[in-house]
Amino acid sequence: MAELLKLEVVTPEKYVISEDVEIVMAPGTIGEFGVLSGHTPFLTSLKPGTINYKDSAGKDKIIFVSGGFSEALPDRVTILAESAERRRDIDIDRARAALDRAQKRLAQGKADNINFERAKASMYRAIERIKIVETRSL
Fold first, then answer.
1. DSSP 92-105
2. CATH assignment of 5-87, given 2.60.15.10, 3.40.980.10, 3.20.20.220, 2.40.30.10?
3. Residue-wise burial string across 1-40, b where 16 or more C-beta atoms lie within 10 A, e elsewhere
4. What's domain 90-135's architecture?
5. What's residue 110's pLDDT?
6. Under a CB-based contact definition with an 8 Å cutoff, are residues 108 and 119 in contact?
7. Tens-digit pLDDT profile for the chain (138 aa)?
8. Which of 44, 75, 77, 92 has a CA-to-CA distance to 8 between 20 and 30 Å?
9. How far is Cα 42 from Cα 55, in angstroms, rounded to an integer?
10. Is there a contact between 62 and 52 (Cβ–Cβ < 8 Å)?
11. How many CA atoms lie within 13 Å of 46's alpha carbon, on the beta-carbon side?
């Protein structure tokens, strides 16, 4: 059995998860990274995407984060996320509506003073949520 480390995912509103895990994979802004027990300490920013982890029973799990920061220590990973949702908590209809809105904004062009970066970020978050629900069997 692999050595365990504590994974904590926290948003400004709530604790999303606090449990012992075997491994954590997260979407760092300069690339995806993985953490096992005994990892060298580091701090990094996160881009929107999925936190994949294996719980203490060896079951694969997933959480969506919309960005934030991660601190890895030899015995724990703490993720301070802007927002985070477990797969079961993602509202697929809301995600599809957000994707549709973002795509319409992007299609309007600059004539309507659309903030392209904000619309692209919204579209990316919606796509990630939809992918988690539709393509993952976790």
1. HHHHHHHHHHHHHH
2. 2.60.15.10
3. eeebbebebbbeeeebbeeebbbbbbbbeeeebebbbebe
4. Up-down Bundle (1.20)
5. 63
6. no
7. 579 999 999 999 999 999 999 999 999 999 999 999 999 999 999 999 999 999 999 999 999 999 999 999 999 999 999 999 888 888 888 888 988 888 888 887 665 666 777 787 888 888 888 888 887 544
8. 92
9. 22
10. yes
11. 28
Place of tokens 């809105």: 101
* All structural domains of the chain with their residue ranges: 5-87, 90-135
Where are the strands (E) in 1-138, listed by range? 5-10, 15-28, 31-36, 42-46, 49-55, 60-65, 68-73, 76-81, 84-86
